[in-house]
Each structure stands twice: as C-alpha cells, then as structure tokens.
Write a structure and sequence with these properties.
Number of helices: 1
Radius of gyration: 12 Å
Order of helices and strands: EEHE
Number of strands: 3
Largest sheet: 3 strands, antiparallel
Structural class: alpha+beta
Distance between the termini: 17 Å
Shape: elongated
Length: about 70
C-alpha cells in the first residue's frame, strides 16, 4: 500500500487571499483513517515551522507513485 499524503491549503497570514497547496507525505501512515486521526499533530508541527502561513483547509489522500508530490 502506498503512503498517505496530507494536502494542506495554506495562505499568507498577512495576505489571506494568497494561498497555495503544500503536500506532506508520510511513510508511517498507511491508511486514510490514520491520516485523519493523526493529521492535527502534523498540521500543528508544520504551522509552528511556518509562522507566516495559516492552514485554511486540509485533506488526506493516498499517495500516487506516478506523481511527484
């Protein structure tokens, strides 16, 4: 089974209309359920490392080996 990817939509704190997607791939998360339950921890850590950005929304998806995320 492929690892799970957490997809964040993040916006600049100083310009909330300027948004982009960030993808976080996890080898230890093997199901969408695991991602859903554990994503808050990863989002909090990511947010701490990127204080100028705000997470607007997020979703979990199975990583596609043919895509470069």
């Amino acid at each position: 089974m492929d690892p799970v990817t957490l997809v964040l939509t993040v916006c600049l704190a100083s310009a909330p209309e300027k948004c982009r997607e960030e993808t976080l791939r996890f080898q230890d998360l093997r199901s969408l359920n695991q991602c859903m339950f554990q994503s808050a921890v990863y989002i909090a850590e990511w947010s701490e490392q990127h204080p100028a950005l705000r997470v607007k929304k997020w979703r979990c998806r199975l990583a596609d080996a043919s895509r470069s995320a």
